[in-house]
Amino acid sequence: xxxxxxxxxxxxxxTEKNHCLKKVVSFLxxxxxxxxxxxxxxxxFSALTAGVLGVFVKYHHTPIVKANNQCLTYNxxxxxxxCFLHPLVFIGLPNTATCILxxxxxxxxxxxxxxxxxAKTLTVxxxxxxxxxxxxxxxxxxxxxxxxxxxxxxxFQIVLCGIWMSTSPPFIDSDAYTEYGLLxxxxxxxxxxxxxxxxxxxxxxxxxxxxxxxxxxNLPDTFNEAKFITFSMLVFFSVWVTFLPxxxxxxxxxxxxxxxFSILASSAGLLGCIFFPKCYIILLRPHRNVLSHVRNKAxxxxxxxxxx
Length: 308
Hints:
Elements: E1 11-13, E2 20-22, E3 24-26, H1 33-58, H2 63-66, H3 70-85, H4 96-129, H5 135-142, H6 149-167, E4 171-175, E5 182-188, H7 192-215, H8 226-249, H9 253-284, H10 291-307
Parallel strand pairs: 3-5
Antiparallel strand pairs: 1-2, 4-5
Helix pairs in contact: 1-3, 1-9, 3-4, 3-9, 4-5, 4-6, 4-7, 6-7, 7-8, 8-9
């Protein structure tokens, strides 16, 4: 006991307590079963999204694809491909570049996706209000004013991320105490206030899209995707609200895996709720994807309302 010494953080004592052994470096790698599973999910969902994009491009002449602004649809699908590929930055040995890229690209990509959803929702509302006499509403549709929401919201997020990266950027950190004999390498968020501010901004955008979509849910549903957007925003909001307590209660590489899973789950919610119902009609119910069916449905709805 007169000659006891404490092992450095990068080492741990053996069972006999007479030697310091070097800790094994650990991180969420591609060879790890958890990392491998998340990688397969990311690549699988990105390929699926690319397939959905291909379906929409192939059937671009059909009414259901033309509705709700084709450009916004393509923009959202391309952004979702990058959202699904983004978790690959979290897997592998962290370095300064990947630590910064993890958080900055996360905020910007999801801002583009959510602002596109918000623009699509406003397009739905304006499209059905254009039948009501009003020069302003018609001008908003012709000038594609809802599309300007995307650069405005994205610019605000870029400024927020720029302040974060310039004041307290993410950096490489190590966890020597969570698992015995392991030195876990991971990225430290830097400023937790900035991270939660980015997340809060995304949740506010999701809440705004949900509110507008919910208020327009009773519009004619042949081309109205407001109901699907409502469900997708509920999924997105639920995932990230659940993420915070679970994220702060986990340690080590499981904390990284939790963030990756949340990114995949929220992106899958947007893809599934908004686009799968449309793909179902395009591929399996093509008779519902013709203009005559839409007109007959609208006529029957109008006749029913007059009878009532």
